[in-house]
Amino acid sequence: MIPGKQYTLDELLRTLWRGKWLVLVSFVLVTTATIVVAGWMRDRYRAEALIVTIGQGVSPEFVRATVTPRTQIRYRMPTISQQILSRSRLEPVIRDLNLYAQMRQIAPMEGVIDRMRKDIAIKVVEGSESFRISYEAAETPLLAVQVTERLARAAVEENVRDREVLARETSTFLQSQLEDARRRLVDQEKRLETYRLRYGPELPSQLPSNMQGIQNVQLQIQSLNDSLNRDRDRRMLVARQLADLQSEQFTTDLLPVGAGPSSATGTPPPDAAAAVRLETALAELRSLEVRLTPEHPDVIRATRLVEDLEKKAQEEAKPGTSARRNKPLTATEIAKRNRVKELQTEIESLDRQIAKKGADEVELRTTLQGYRARVEAVPTRESELASLTRDYETLQTQYRTLLTKKEDSKVAEELERQQVGEQFKIVDPPRLPEKPFWPNRPLIDLGGAAAGLALGIGLTLWLDYRDKSRKTAFDAGTVLGIPVLGMIPLMVTAADRRRAQWRQAAASLGLVVMAAACATAIWLTFRI
Q1: 49 and 131 fall within a common domain
Q2: Same structural domain, 322 and 413
Q3: Which has fewest Cβ within 10 Å: 108, 305, 328, 471?
Q4: Chain mean position to CA 102
């Protein structure tokens, strides 16, 4: 470049005009090469199918599906893509349709599958629950349609199969959970039954009956005590009557003839018969045993007196000891003795009744203590029963919920088996491409022409930038820094003119040959 030289628009145009042949040659060569290369490119055909998500055929108000996508299709697309692009799906397609035959001879199947994955495109349609599957084939348009159709059917079948499997697995899982809940519920029921059988009378629900039982037992004890007091009073009265009769009989036996029993007292005299005194002592002992304990001093004294009188009565019972033993009894004496026996019998009966009622009282008090122990244990049993009942109600609720879900899952499983649930549907099947989508030869040719023109212009400007010769008066003035006063014209001889003509003819011939070669190359490219 000449120092100080500046490129203006006019200077650029003059420079390009001087290098017009270079620009033309570059443009023709690059354009021709682009046309030839684009012509030799293999046509690639693309077929695509549109798949949409169809909702459940039965209203969710009647049948609730167990396999419900929680996200939109664009979030599920990675999973769908992995299923479609899996080796188990692509390898049968490659073998059935004989894809990539040349590549399979030199490359492993894994590499062929990776190559096919690059030719497959799966895109979500924005604003809708649908997606497109497309495949690019370099062989024939029909092959692109066949592969795309296989992939679309695979997506639909995979979705149906996955939903069936998920529905079946959901039903199986709910069945296992239901069995586990049933087992735990039965165990809890057994524990609750065992607890109620063990502490049934002490449960809070039995508190009113226990309180009523306490009242009833207390009333029975009160009634029994009243009856027992009446029997004791009656026994004391009968014992007193018996003692009076025995004393009166003894007095009558000892009085002389003509004396009456009116002077007899209630207590036999000290010189009375031992048998009479024994009867009186026995009556007194029985009366003391009813009122006092066996360890009481009065009871001990009465017992000793009875033992002494029994010994004396045995001595008096020997022959010859009584003067009146064989004397016949009068009617009054017989009546008195019968009355004595009746009173003694009544006393024995009263003693048995008193003893029985005493035992009944002890039994009733034991029962009363049992009722009170039940009432006292109610707070503890209530707390324990609340814990058991709470766990039982929780398990029962869980079991009922699982049972409902299990029945719903059976219906949902049948829904998926009959393909009434949500599924994919091919609404736009792949069609035979009318023309290849690649290469776009007009666009490539236009790009090549633009590139050739840009290359020629660039080379021209670059050569001019590298050229340091001065061709015009302006260049000389710019370099020397002084004005140009005049110019000497170029002296052209006849030889110079002939050489110039030859160069121009050679250049023209070269351009013609180049144009013919380019045309021939283009013709051969499109002819083949």
Answers
A1: yes
A2: no
A3: 328
A4: 54
Contacting residues for 263 by C-beta, under 8 A, at least 6 apart: 251, 255
> Which runs of E-coded beta strand occur in 202-334?
none
CA nearest neighbour of 395 among 23, 387, 251: 387
- Domain span holding position 223: 207-402
The torsion angles phi and psi of 335, rounded to 5 degrees, stand at -65, -40
Q: What are phi and psi of 198, to 5 degrees?
A: -80, -40
Q: Does 434 reside within a domain?
A: no
pLDDT of residue 219: 92
This prediction has a pTM of 0.49
* Residue 114 confidence (pLDDT): 92
**Both tokens assigned to 362:** 């002890």
At position 282, the amino acid (one-letter code) is: L
- In this prediction, residue 224 carries a pLDDT of 87
Task: Identify whether residues 145 and 212 lie together within a single domain.
Answer: no
> Is 455 a domain residue?
yes
Among candidates 156, 162, 146, which has minimal Cα distance to 92?
146
232 and 374 housed in the same domain: yes
Q: How many domains does the chain have?
A: 3
Chunked into runs of 10 residues, the chain (528 residues) has average pLDDT values of: 60 74 79 76 83 68 54 73 88 89 88 90 84 84 89 86 81 88 89 85 84 90 88 84 68 44 44 63 74 76 79 66 52 77 84 87 89 87 84 87 84 68 80 77 78 82 70 60 66 74 74 74 64
Give the count of beta carbons closer than 10 Å to the beta carbon of residue 317.
12
Locus of tokens 């035992």 = 359
**Structural Rg of the chain based on CA atoms:** 67
CA distance 266 to 247: 6
Q: 44 has which bridge partners?
A: 438
Q: d(Cα 227, Cα 224) in Å, to the nearest integer?
A: 5
Only one residue has tokens 């443009």, namely: 27
For residue 264, is it within any domain?
Answer: yes
Is the CB of residue 409 less than 8 Å from the CB of residue 64?
A: no
pLDDT recorded at residue 77: 79
Residue 368 inside a domain? The answer is yes
Query: CB of 268 within 8 A of CB of 276?
Result: yes
Amino acid 183: pLDDT: 92
Yes or no: say if 152 and 52 are a contact pair by the CB < 8 Å rule. no
Cα separation of 416 and 423, whole Å?
A: 9
| Burial class of residue 379 (count of CB atoms within 10 Å of its CB; 0-12, 13-18, 19+) | exposed
